[in-house]
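Quick one - inputs below.
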Amino acid sequence: MILDGKCPTGPIEKSWDKHRFDLKLVNPANKRKYNIIVVGTGLAGGAAAASLGELGYNVQAFCYQDSPRRAHSIAAQGGINAAKNYPSDGDSILRLMYDTIKGGDFRAREADVWRLSQVSNNIIDQCVAQGVPFGRDYAGYLDNRSFGGAQVSRTFYSRGETGQQLLLGAYSALSRQIKLGSVKMYNRREMLDLVVVDGVARGITCRNLITGALESYAADAVCLCTGGYVNVFYLSTNAKGCSVTATWKAAKKGAFFANPCYTQIHPTCIPQAGEYQSKLTLMSESLRNDGRIWVPKKKEDVNKRPEQIPEEDRDYYLERKYPSFGNLAPRDISSRSAKEQCDEGRGVGPGGRGVYLDYADSIKRLSEKVICERYGNLFEMYERITDDNAYKTPMRIYPAPHYAMGGLWVDYNLMSNVPGLFVLGEANFSVHGANRLGASALMQGLSDGYFVIPYTIGGYLATVKPGGTNTDHAEFKKSAEDVNSTTNKLLNINGKKTVTEFHRDLGKIMWNNVGMARSKESLTEAIKQIPVLRDEFWKNLKVTGTGAELNQQLENAGRVADFLEFGELMARDSLHREESCGGHFRVEHQLPDGEAMRNDADFSYVGAWEFKGVGKEPELHKEPLKFETIHLAVRSYK
Amino acid sequence: MSEHKTMTLTLIVWRQKNANDPGKFETYTAKHITEHHSFLEMLDVVNEDLINTGKEPIVFDHDCREGICGMCSQVINGAPHGGQDRTTVCQLHMRKFKDGDTIYIEPWRARAFPIVKDLIVDRAALDTIIQAGGYTSCHTGGVPDGNTIMIPKPIAEEATDAAECIGCGACVAGCPNGAAMLFTGAKVSQLALLPQGRPEAAARVKNMTEAMKECGFGNCTNHYECQVACPKGVNVKFIARMNREFLKAQFA
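Output:
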């Protein structure tokens, strides 16, 4: 099937304004007759639930944490992009769009990226009005910093905790609507199924994580704002509870999963210290503003203290290879370069899996005080984890799985191919193409939640009668029975291996074969190994306790069961995409200098997969990508 | 991975099946722990051992494991989050302990935080306080350009200091009165300091403090334990500011 993104036509500058005008409206008195489910309360979900509630819809919002304020958007450190051009350094909506399309290696839709860039400015205004304390200059105006993949300063920030402040802004707007009664909030609920009636999304089945009870909720539209899937690698920068479960359950009910092979490996994370490790910690990309990345030139120097290695024996490889972007080269390129250095035996620290991020020059140039003001909390965090003082000795960093550019396929209205199912934020595939630039995740989450879905969902709801289905419908009963039987199955295997052991095993398969450098051999190997591990999981899993209580192992077991199916799809998508682009690097497809080699003639499309059954080959549907505003070009940061 | 010396520790952990169970302490041994384990990773190791011997693992709240989501919540040897300056449990590392140590692990204890299971408590009361007024009532869209609201840098910085709160509830757990004054004071102050928050400042402080009382939180008697417990270093001066705002609101 050739998929249609239903993008507006005509001049790109007018595309969103024209589309907004063309969308049907729901009159204010009718809005309250419509029920909308929002799953997930991060930037996308929190902003959507608050805005839709404010418009007058009946919103039911769900999160697995004990409060909507805890969604993992909160952990974003560095900042949020906007095309305000406050520093007058040449920025514009078009330039933000250009940078995002190029940063994504020409694998995103132009119209979606234009819209994102256009509303980026509204987001900053909205957050300021909410009382989000952005960094200010001494005149009292909003301050900007630089981020990877851009030559302008367009990143707004709040210390090293921008995600926290933006999320708390959305959470406060959401709290206001909860108080007003327009949003009913359900904490500690995990969505375990999407209910589809006659081909239309009509509700969800949840597990109450405190009592274990299964609950059904019906609505006229369902918005999934459930984040990304890089915990498929086990070790990642995501929160422990992040999973593919909500989107994968939707995929199993017919929603297409687009570009799952596009995963972002973030270059600046604290290297792994041991087998027991449960997660990897990211150090904001903003650190690269003032830090210089290097490894010893000589392999024999890797075990020396960094201070003992003289300047001439250091290789500042990013500055050498990418003189115009230097240490601010985009994430995919920086990560791959770090891996190359380590593969060549010049990595530092345990296992040779690390590179230095050095502040000595900046401290000399700016003083320790200035560096402390800019990054103090990050330096503190680094010291707590590693026991090293980064003011005195360089940080050690290594890439780690961080973000999923792939996600459920959506059209321009953020609606999936299942009518009534909308997908927002990281959970969809829409704007980042094959690689996301720094400070763009927050932008997308809030764009989708505050400024896109409030318009586009109305366009859909105006075409359907409110209250079309309730939870008495047979499909809700069937869904609950299916979830119940899976739960019982997980509890009654009584095997010998814990959920964590299985997750770790899957993570190793994924990292070694579907990680930063992929090949036909490695991917074929993954496609062979994952089903074997999956079989073992269903025969040898050990979960103690029951389903009728708070049972964290059972929660994790369900998530890992889904990763064991989804991981295979990721490998298949990577195998089919015979090119290198952004975060997807196939060793067979590289330029003589080791850079990614795209194949625009054959792969300039969105690859959206239709689920056909566990262990069965999924069916590929394509949405061709057209580039009319930004011309296809080799992506160079040299 | 490099070899590390390992530690063996005795854990005395609060176990409670559910809200109605009286609960009790149980003793466990944590083996093969290195200085690089985080506290939660140490508990992961203990839990894997428990599961492998068919026993119920210890349940505890956690999510981001990088000190920002505010989900983790344990009283360790009497101190919320373990007593390391500006550190959540998930960021506490085992290098702060030594081989042979005995460690007491308990949930937050406060009237407003009923225990759900083992180390997990119900902190919905904190959401209730925010819902009572922890926001500016701006609409989505229809707001002015961000740079039309100028904020002097020192004010912006102070508002950010208040906004550091991650809503973990350690301040409540640390307070002998089970008060949520630091939590509430931080939000009241953040918004009272900013021009965007001024129009509703009086109603906000009244409504939020009222919600605080209704939820069963105690009052402040200047112990400053909250500030010591706070993993984000939120200062008690924000309680003083809230009190001033509260007084002003009486005449508003």
